[in-house]
Amino acid sequence: MSKESFLYMQICDRIRSDILSGVYKTGERLPTDHELQEELGVSLITIKKAFGILKDEGFITRSPGVGTKVLTSTPSAAAVSTSALAEASSAQVSAASDNVSSKKKKIGIVLENVSDSFGFEMLYHLDELLSAKGYQTCIRFSNYNRKKETKEIRELLEEHISALMIMPCHGTYYNSQILKLVLDHFPVILIDKKMEGIPVPSIRTDNRDATHILMKDLYGHGCRNICLFTRDISGTSSLQERFDGYQAAIKKYKLTPHVLSIASTDQPFHSLPCDAETYQQVAEYLLENVDNLDGIICSEYNLCGVLAKVLRRTPELSKKELHLRYIDGEPEGLSSGLYPHIIQDQKAIAEKAVEILLEKMANKKVVQEYLIPAKLENGVYSVFQNL
């Protein structure tokens, strides 16, 4: 199965699941192609292919000027069966596909969300590796919502999954459903996150070292006043670790810390724009400290898009020479590969996650924490360009 085919089938499965569960009701308009492209970070062709499958199955209708609407949540069995046998990547949606795969053991995977920047490549390799081992993957998305995360876990358990991989939603408190599974000794591993004090294996990027790498790179470019731009780190292990890496580098290079922290909101930062209040907060901080800064690290890639928008809109800031770095893929509003940034080794994360999960399923003693080295990707420029 090609990676492109995998992507549009996963999007198709996600929307189909939302229709079947009542998230989208009959007659309700679905997000536009462009809205989904922005949310998921994929091409319009991929979105159109996913909608094409759902239309063939009888779930939706698409009309120019009207958009995409839910036709029914109970299309004819023949339509679903035909499409599922040809296109579906797993057996979680249709009865026909269930019969084909019923003998396979199922592995549940629950992620917050995925995009080209982080998630799609990892998910593709997880499915590929587990399929090679004879397992069927049942993939769900929480969309950064704790209640939906709990619902998806419960539904997967009803499907009799043998184990669970999960990227838990961030928050001050842990999901009680995950805690219960751990206490019941159900095979669970965490991806990209950790749960401090809870005996559950975590496979993730070495976030502390990732920030340290960027600090070292900026220091090598002569930067001595480097700001960390981050969301509130409370309840998010990856952001806490990136902050710790920044603090360690500040101490190592004997620099003065500068931290711009914005409050987390109900709106996830996988998409832009964010609210006007956030832009104002960023602009005010930079205007107040612009003379004291020569470098900025964004702890998440889309914060870099927010930063770029503020710099372009504010003449006093656009003239300032600021070296720019960020973590993860391509920020919205910036051309690909403009600035040096950290990329996560998604294939290595998938490989180690499968290895640890299978060992746990075999009741072997496993490593509770496995950190995958981060990689520095060079860019065209070091200093922000008002392009």
Characterise this structure.
The protein is α/β, with parallel strands linked by helices and 387 residues long. Among the domains are: 1-99, Arc Repressor Mutant, subunit A (Orthogonal Bundle), CATH 1.10.10.10; 207-343, Response regulator (Rossmann fold), CATH 3.40.50. The chain is 44% helix and 17% strand. It is built from 14 helices and 14 strands. The chain has helices at 3-20, 33-40, 44-57, 77-87, 95-101, 120-132, 146-158, 176-183, 207-220, 237-253, 276-289, 301-313, 315-318, 346-361; strands at residues 60-63, 67-70, 105-111, 135-141, 163-166, 188-191, 202-205, 226-231, 258-262, 295-298, 323-327, 341-343, 369-372, 375-377. Helix 8 (176-183) links the parallel strand 5 (163-166) and strand 6 (188-191). The longest helix is centred in the first third of the chain and has 18 residues, at 3-20. The radius of gyration is 22 Å and the shape is globular.
Give the SSE map:
Layout: H1 3-20, H2 33-40, H3 44-57, E1 60-63, E2 67-70, H4 77-87, H5 95-101, E3 105-111, H6 120-132, E4 135-141, H7 146-158, E5 163-166, H8 176-183, E6 188-191, E7 202-205, H9 207-220, E8 226-231, H10 237-253, E9 258-262, H11 276-289, E10 295-298, H12 301-313, H13 315-318, E11 323-327, E12 341-343, H14 346-361, E13 369-372, E14 375-377
Parallel strand pairs: 3-4, 3-5, 5-6, 6-7, 7-13, 8-9, 8-10, 10-11, 11-12
Antiparallel strand pairs: 1-2, 12-14
Helix pairs in contact: 1-3, 3-4, 6-14, 9-10, 11-12
